[in-house]
Amino acid sequence: FVIPSTSVERVVRISRKEILSVENRPTILVDKQPVSLVWLSDVLELPRRGAPLEPTDDATAVVLGSGLLRVAFLVDEIVGEQEVLVKALVRPLTRVRNIAGASVLGSGRVAPVLNTTDLLKSAVKRPSESARELTTASPSRMSTSQSGGLGSLAMRRSRLLAIDARSICSR
After folding, report:
1. Distance between CA 3 and CA 114 in Å, rounded?
2. Phi, psi angle pair for 133, to nearest 5°
3. CB contact set of 138 (below 8 Å; sequence gap of 6+)
4. 129-133 long-range Cβ contacts below 8 angstroms, 24+ apart
5. pLDDT tens digit string along 44-99?
6. What pLDDT does 51 receive?
7. Secondary structure of 51-110 in HEC code, one letter for each residue
8. Segment 22-26 mean pLDDT
9. Over the stretch 95-116, which tens digit does the pLDDT of each residue have?
10. Do the beta carbons of residue 31 and residue 43 sit within 8 Å?
């Protein structure tokens, strides 16, 4: 997946002991301010592929913000930052939740470009999950594959942050 870097406030490394529970939601402190913490894969309704977060493990989180709303998304890995051409989705895919378009990466792989506004809304709407549940592997879930059909209505150049997570386009 790729995330437009304009929405990324920062990338942080966190340990399990830094995860607090505020109003029964996992939270971390970023600049001494509480920020909700969710797995990106959970928001995208994909199974987690990593092992449970052990007390000695560090995890990577991408802090996204829009206005006053800030959420930290746990990701498997940050692959890098690059400038890519974003292609918007065509009908009937124009309103696929959490997806803004697609891009062909330098490696030739097609990657979905995440809609950060939708991601933030989806993360806030998620049922609360305790800090303990957040650090353990979730049971496998069914996920739908939406490959192909990624035409373009509009194209724009953007700087994007590529992250390693399960791709709904490549499975």
Report:
1. 5
2. -65, -35
3. 39, 42, 47, 48
4. 129/25, 129/26, 129/38, 129/42, 130/21, 130/24, 130/26, 131/19, 131/20, 131/21, 131/26, 131/27
5. 988 877 655 555 578 899 999 988 889 999 998 888 888 888 888 888 777 788 89
6. 56
7. CCCCCCCEEEEEEEEECCEEEEEEECEEEEEEEEEEEECCCCCCCCCCEEEEEECCCCCE
8. 89
9. 788 898 989 888 888 899 999 9
10. no
User: From CA 79, how far away is CA 93, in angstroms rounded?
Assistant: 26
**Above 50 in pLDDT, residue 130?**
no
Q: Tokens for 151, please give them.
A: 């035409």
Question: Token pair for residue 49?
Answer: 């592929």
Q: Are 154 and 1 in contact (CB under 8 A)?
A: no
Composition of the chain by helix, strand, coil, percent to 5 = 15, 45, 40
Query: Rounded distance, CA 122 to CA 96, Å?
Result: 13
Q: Residue 17 is encoded by which pair of tokens? A: 């002991």
CA-CA distance, 154 to 74, in Å (whole number)? 30
What is the structure's pLDDT at 146?
29
> Two tokens at 129?
């999950």
Residue 65, both tokens: 């913000």
Copy the structure tokens of residue 45.
């309704």
